[in-house]
Amino acid sequence: MLNIKELLDKVKASPYREIVVHAPHTGVVEFAGLKKGDKVYGREGDYKEKPGTLLANLTREKNKKPISAPEKGVVESVRTELEGKFVEAGEPLVTIKHYLTRQEVIELILQEALYLFRAPERAKYYFVPEVDQKLKVSGKRSVKVTEGMDLMIVSRMKRETPLAYSGPEGIIYSVYFSRGENVDEGAPLIGICPEDQLTVIQDVVARIQSEWEEES
């Protein structure tokens, strides 16, 4: 059985993830003057229309393009030795320490606690009509899955094929894909919770929601 307390303690001991911002294309780098410890912010606005904090500009053929922070965090390092130099696409430029939000911690715990049923190939996925209807009417945790159950339809290259569930018996706790969007091979489609673990997982989620302190 999963040791939830041990997992929570592990997250609390290292409550962040590092984001490495790379050069999106070739060009000459001009950094925005940020240094280690400076706070940065990701896209903001109702429609994420406001770009994040400017990290650097990359000039190619007299065309200057900004590179902005993808998420909120604290600057961990800046490759200042590259200032004014030509870099190739993919060159690491800035490392940001992103402190996990309450929701990110919940998702991290859930992905460890649940059984993840993954996409067998890159394609679009849909629940079969009877499952889809039950999810819409009664919610995710109303659907129980068993080995071999017809669960989804795989849509790829104008061909549709059924996909049976393979894994332990349980209820659908999380859904990780959106209708009509391509899902990469190996990416999780759904998270399954054994019925006898449901109360434990719900208690952990409630605990994180009440106790986790987010960085301002």
Describe the overall structure.
With 216 residues, this protein is α+β, with helices and mostly antiparallel strands. The protein has two domains: 15-99, Beta Barrel (OB fold (Dihydrolipoamide Acetyltransferase, E2P)); 103-211, OB fold (Dihydrolipoamide Acetyltransferase, E2P) (Beta Barrel). The protein is 21% helix and 38% strand. The chain contains four helices and 16 strands. The chain has helices at 4-13, 102-113, 129-138, 198-211, and strands spanning 16-22, 27-31, 39-40, 54-60, 63-68, 73-78, 86-87, 92-99, 115-118, 123-127, 144-145, 150-156, 159-164, 170-175, 182-183, 188-193. The chain has a four-stranded antiparallel sheet with strand order 1-8-6-3, with no helix packed on it. It has a four-stranded antiparallel sheet with strand order 5-4-2-7, with no helix packed on it. The chain has a four-stranded antiparallel sheet with strand order 9-16-14-11, with helices on one face. A hairpin with a 2-residue loop joins strand 4 (54-60) and strand 5 (63-68). Helix 1 crosses helix 2 and helix 2 (102-113) packs antiparallel against helix 4. The longest helix has 14 residues, at 198-211. It starts with a helix and ends in a 5-residue tail after the last helix. Residues 23-96 form the Lipoyl-binding domain. This is Lipoyl-binding domain-containing protein. InterPro entries: Biotin_lipoyl, Single_hybrid_motif.
